[in-house]
Amino acid sequence: MNFPVLQNDLILRAARGQPTERAPVWVMRQAGRYLPEFRKMREKHGFFDICQTPELACEITLQPIRRFPLDAAIIFSDILVVPQALGMVVEMRPGEGPVFPEPLNMPDDLDKLCSKDSVEKLQYVFDALTLTRHKLEGKVPLLGFTGAPWTLMSYMIEGKGSKTQAKAKKWLYQHPEASQKLLQMITNLNVDYLVGQVKAGAQMLQVFESHGEFLTQELFDKFSLPYLTAIVEQVKGKLKADGIPEVPMTVFAKGAHFALEQLARTGYDVIGLDWTMNPESSRARVGNNVTLQGNLDPCALYAPKEELAEKVAKMALAFGSHRWIANLGHGIYPDVDPDHMEAFVEAVQKFSVKK
Ligand SMILES: Cc1c2[nH]c(c1CCC(=O)O)Cc1[nH]c(c(CCC(=O)O)c1C)Cc1[nH]c(c(CCC(=O)O)c1C)Cc1[nH]c(c(C)c1CCC(=O)O)C2
């Protein structure tokens, strides 16, 4: 596809364990509501209309890249496009977030899902990736992503945000086989979806297990880890079989602190840490063969800029300069002042320089 030559490969080197002059930095949800130019776009267009229109998704992906000296762009989309591709309706309601008008209630409801040709329904994401990779002009690598099977399953059953995920967890206890059938269906689509994203131009991939925090270790071992592992193994295997150079893959399992050692053995190149994790003890637990990503408290961006810079300096010391991708410990919040986002990025660049 003759993509422009990449000029900044810091994040790819950090992910592969190669030396970097300083830590690469990007921010989860960096393209979003904290930016006035995004909110302006949302006044005119529906959320999923933007996702489905490559020119608009590309424009929003580029917005944070124009403002801040970031080391990666993440394609503008949402994890919930995967349930949509399986035939479910998802609406983005103002003030409420994503809502499924007809969530899955009982195992029989799985028959309503349509896994045939579902990856083709995501062609608009592939088109957005290809367009954005060109429009980035090689400035920074383009990241693709998907939601992990458990996180997507829980949305499909709860139908909206939930404080406990009790409905979804009820399936794990009462309908373990149907749960595994659903998780496998999502895994299969995710594998094709991520391979398609790389073919379309994604240079690195992240899998978001945002609802890891609701699982016990036992539930995680049974209903999350095997599917996260299958995804990395199959995506890397399929790319290899198709003669396509492998791309680094990140897993972000929020709240799954108990699973760090296991996650480090799955084959992901990068493990994302949420803000509750200690960088030094996490490094001791995972060893030196994986890269860590994270993990400043997203609320630290509310602190005065000087204090924010001090917190970044402390974080940089704790992670060390090798195999670290600087990020927040979860997505940036919508009421963060963009100037403080800039202060965060600049502080990483200043304090993560290799000595
Ligand atoms: C759980 C989850 C979702 N979506 C996502 C996750 C995993 C990351 C995480 O844990 O935060 C991932 C996501 N969602 C969005 C991106 C785009 C790329 C980026 O900037 O990182 C990414 C990577 C855009 C978005 N996704 C959404 C918005 C705001 C919607 C709007 O404009 O009305 C954006 C910019 C909507 C969305 N989508 C989702 C929720 C819960 C919400 C509403 C609340 C919220 O905004 O956080 C589901």
UniProtKB/TrEMBL annotation:
UniProt KW keywords: Cytoplasm, Decarboxylase, Heme biosynthesis, Lyase, Porphyrin biosynthesis
GO biological process, one term: protoporphyrinogen IX biosynthetic process
Keyword RNA-binding: no
Cell compartments where the protein resides: Cytoplasm
Pathway in which this enzyme or protein is active: Porphyrin-containing compound metabolism; protoporphyrin-IX biosynthesis; coproporphyrinogen-III from 5-aminolevulinate: step 4/4
CC annotations in GO: cytosol
Enzyme class label: lyase
CDD domains for this protein: URO-D
Catalysis performed (reactions): uroporphyrinogen III + 4 H(+) = coproporphyrinogen III + 4 CO2
Pfam family of the protein (one): URO-D
E.C. number: 4.1.1.37
InterPro entries with a match to the protein in the record: UROD/MetE-like_sf, Uroporphyrinogen_deCO2ase_HemE, Uroporphyrinogen_deCOase
Occurrences of domain Uroporphyrinogen decarboxylase (URO-D) (ranges): 24-33, 143-159
Family membership noted in the UniProt record: Belongs to the uroporphyrinogen decarboxylase family.
Official protein name in the record: Uroporphyrinogen decarboxylase
Species of provenance: Tigriopus californicus (Marine copepod)
Organism classification: Eukaryota, Metazoa, Ecdysozoa, Arthropoda, Crustacea
